[in-house]
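Appendix C: a fully annotated inverse folding record. The material below is reproduced so that readers can follow the format used throughout the book. The structure is listed first as C-alpha cells, followed by the designed sequence.
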C-alpha cells in the first residue's frame, strides 16, 4: 500500500508532499482464471494459503492472521478506523469480506472516526522470502476507496519504514476504476517516488465488476507483477536510485486492507456508496521452481536460489 509516511520505532510520521506518481500503463486483454485453481500459472508448489472457507460469519483464522485495531490514519490521512467487528470483517460463502462503513466510531484509544473498515496481516504468523504470492480479489467501486494487497518487511519494528521494504502487489484508488498499481518502496525510493507501474483493463472495464488475480513472482534480484496472468511490470536490483539499497532480500509478511480516504485516493463524495466491500477469494504462496522455501508459524519463510544467491 503506497504510504506517505516514515516509520520510526513503530511510529508513523506523515510526509508533507502530495502524491505525484510516475505511472507506466499497459493496455492488454485481461482474462479471469478459474476460481479455486490448484496451481500457480508458473507451476510452482503451494506452501501456504488461506481459502477463507470458514463458516459464514466467522473471523479469519487467528493462526494465520492478526486483525488490526487502529484509527491512526497511518500518516496517509486515511479516514477509517480498522476494527475487529464482524460488521467490518468476516468470511462468507468462501470469501473474506472486508466492509467499509460510514458511521461514527470511537476506538479504545479514544480516537473517533467517521468511517470503519478492516485490515489483517500475517505478522508474527507467517513470513515469506521469494516465491509467487497471489490473491483473487474483487475490489469495491467508489471515490475514496483504497483497497490493497501487499507485503511489509518483517524487520519493520527494528529498522522502520521504508528501510524494511514494501511490496505493493495490488492497489486501486476509486477515481481510477480501470487501473491497478504495483510498486516497491525502499530507502530512497518511497512515498510518492516508488519503483512503480500500472495495469489498465481494456475498453474501460472496471476492476470492481468481477474477481481478478493479482500476483508477484519474487526472486532474489527481480520482482515481476501480474494481473490475471499478464506480466505488466518487472523491477530488478539496480533499478533503484544510484547508491540506494535493494530492500527485498529478507522475509516479508502479508497485508490485506480496505482504506477510506487519504492523500492518494482523496475523500469519499456524494457518489460513494456505503457500505461497500472488498472480497478476497483466496491468498496463496508458492515456491517457484529452482528455489527452496520453508514456512513456519510465528517464524519465517525463507526462499533461496538453488545457486545460493540472496
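Designed amino acids, in order:
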Amino acid at each position: 500500500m503506497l504510504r506517505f509516511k516514515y516509520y520510526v520505532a513503530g511510529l508513523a510520521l506523515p510526509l508533507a508532499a502530495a502524491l505525484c506518481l510516475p505511472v507506466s500503463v499497459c493496455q492488454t486483454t485481461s482474462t479471469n482464471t478459474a476460481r479455486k485453481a490448484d496451481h500457480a500459472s508458473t507451476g510452482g508448489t503451494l506452501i501456504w494459503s488461506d481459502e477463507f472457507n470458514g463458516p459464514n460469519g466467522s473471523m479469519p483464522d487467528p493462526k494465520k492472521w492478526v486483525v488490526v485495531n487502529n484509527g491512526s490514519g497511518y500518516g496517509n490521512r486515511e479516514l477509517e478506523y480498522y476494527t475487529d467487528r464482524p460488521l467490518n470483517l468476516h468470511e462468507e460463502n468462501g470469501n473474506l469480506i472486508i466492509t467499509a462503513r460510514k458511521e461514527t466510531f470511537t476506538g479504545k484509544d479514544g480516537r473517533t472516526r467517521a468511517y470503519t473498515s478492516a485490515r489483517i496481516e500475517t505478522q508474527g504468523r507467517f513470513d515469506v522470502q521469494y516465491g509467487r504470492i497471489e490473491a483473487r480479489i474483487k475490489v469495491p467501486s467508489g471515490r475514496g476507496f483504497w483497497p490493497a494487497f501487499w507485503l511489509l518487511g518483517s524487520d519493520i519494528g527494528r529498522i522502520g519504514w521504508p528501510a524494511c521494504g514494501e511490496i505493493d502487489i495490488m492497489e486501486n484508488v476509486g477515481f481510477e476504476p480501470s487501473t491497478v498499481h504495483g510498486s516497491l518502496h525502499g530507502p530512497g525510493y518511497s512515498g510518492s517516488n516508488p519503483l512503480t507501474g500500472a495495469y489498465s483493463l481494456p475498453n474501460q472495464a472496471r476492476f470492481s465488476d468481477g474477481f481478478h488475480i493479482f500476483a508477484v513472482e519474487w526472486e532474489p534480484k527481480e520482482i515481476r507483477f501480474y494481473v490475471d496472468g499478464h506480466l505488466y511490470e518487472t523491477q530488478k536490483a539496480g533499478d533503484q536510485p544510484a547508491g540506494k539499497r535493494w530492500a527485498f532480500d529478507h522475509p516479508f509478511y502479508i497485508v490485506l486492507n480496505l482504506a477510506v480516504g487519504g492523500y492518494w485516493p482523496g475523500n469519499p463524495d456524494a457518489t460513494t456508496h456505503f457500505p461497500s466491500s472488498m472480497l478476497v477469494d483466496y491468498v496463496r504462496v508458492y515456491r517457484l521452481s529452482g528455489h527452496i522455501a520453508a514456512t513456519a508459524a510465528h517464524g519465517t519463510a525463507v526462499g533461496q536460489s538453488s545457486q545460493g544467491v540472496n
